[in-house]
Amino acid sequence: MSRLYGLYDECKKYGSVRSWKLLVSTFQCLPLAAVIDERTFCVHHGMSPKLHTLNDMDALARNELAEDEAPLCDLLFSEPQDSPCWVPNEDLFGYLWGPDVTEWWNSNNGLEFLVRSGGYIAERA
């Protein structure tokens, strides 16, 4: 993914292939998501229709990212949208999901908020 989105080229241009390898190995050590105060779910980008609980995330193999259809890929590339349910993201990897999915996720996991790097904050009703 980092090659596809230009990180490899940037590292090669301004540093070295070794710097890219170090960054990628560092990414492998970072958590996929975090829960703050047992209320707020924080994730890099999105959610996956293949994951139903926080425990499902713990069972993910970190090397799954190589597969476009893997739940790990969904967590990194899925996006919120205004329409309901899950819709495959035709432009990129992952899915688009609506407020109903966020509400279901929060309710199913005893959470109140979902926060993602794109600035989307959703509160459980």
TrEMBL record:
It is an enzyme of class 3 (hydrolase). Keywords: Hydrolase, Manganese, Metal-binding. GO terms for molecular function: metal ion binding; protein serine/threonine phosphatase activity. It comes from the Eukaryota. Its EC number is 3.1.3.16. Pfam families: Metallophos. SUPFAM superfamilies: Metallo-dependent phosphatases (SSF56300). The keyword Hydrolase applies. Residues 10-116 form the Calcineurin-like phosphoesterase domain. This is protein-serine/threonine phosphatase. The lineage of its organism: Eukaryota, Amoebozoa, Discosea, Longamoebia, Centramoebida.
